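Input record (one chain):
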Amino acid sequence: MNALIWGRLPTVRLSTHVRPFKQPFVRQPPLRQPPIVRYQSWRPRRGQQQQQQQQYQRFQQQPRSNLQSLLYQWVTSRTFYWQLGGFGTVCGAYYVTHVEEAPLTGRRRFMASFPSFVHRYLEGTGGMLTEAYKDRLLPPTDKRHQLAQRVLERLIPSSGQAEKKWKLYVIDDPNEMNAMALPGGEVVIFTGMMKILENEDRLAAVMAHEVAHVVARHSVENLSQQIYLMPLYLAAAVGVSAVLSDGGITISRMIFNLVINYPASRKIEAEADYIGLMMMAQSCYRPEAAVSVWERFQQLSVQRPPQFLSTHPSDKNREVQIRDWLPQAYDKYNMSDCAYTGRMFDEFGVRSGGMGSE
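The corresponding structure, as predicted from the sequence alone:
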């Protein structure tokens, strides 16, 4: 009856099938093939091949030396920082416990302890010097030797080392203007130096300077400085050699001389000037004679390198510095009651045929 009422209804089938979406066809451009290049065999000429090999060797890493290899292995080891810290602690403790003051100036410096054979070697250098100049040594009977001996005997009581066995050598060489004092107590002076000094006070200034080197133990100080600076020098030499294969050691030595060795040597020479000036004033020699020594050297117009390239201060700077020390020297002179003593020594020197004083 429902069918009669409603009639026959059309049937509708529902489907879940969805037609897939198709990408519209786009024509792709054809792929371009790379051009075919035909390479021809090419052999460089003999000269060009050698030039390429030299250029390659120039930029090629240089082989390490044995020292550089050992240093590289040590730096890259796991315990490097522990070893470096321990070594620095030991060196620092040794340095602090071996610092002492120089006589008169009070300058603090490092003085290492050396075995006995090192001191014997330093004190035995006088024998080697006399052996080299044995044919030109003046005898003790020579007037020039007697004059220098009298000056030395007058200076020794003021040195504080009267117990030392001092010995004088006068070498007959009129062209050599030099004087020196060795650690063993040997004082050497050349006749060329005595000729330009002209009087006993100037001779005392030069000899007192040389004796001051022995009193202050400057030879031991120089050796001590070389010892504690040697590791730093070697490290710098290896580092420079790694960058510059040629001349690394030479460049490192030049830098160390300009920065460390030359300034330290000039400081030592200035200290010997001061100690020698006080020594000669206490021995009743006129302190102003030390100033005239360097004035005379400037008049000679001797060719010398600039001060920063020399182990000694310039003559002009030494003259200026000694002038500044003259008031202290005259205090020493007056404390020694030299008004009468100096006149007595001058009269004795003139009567004995010496040069006397100005």
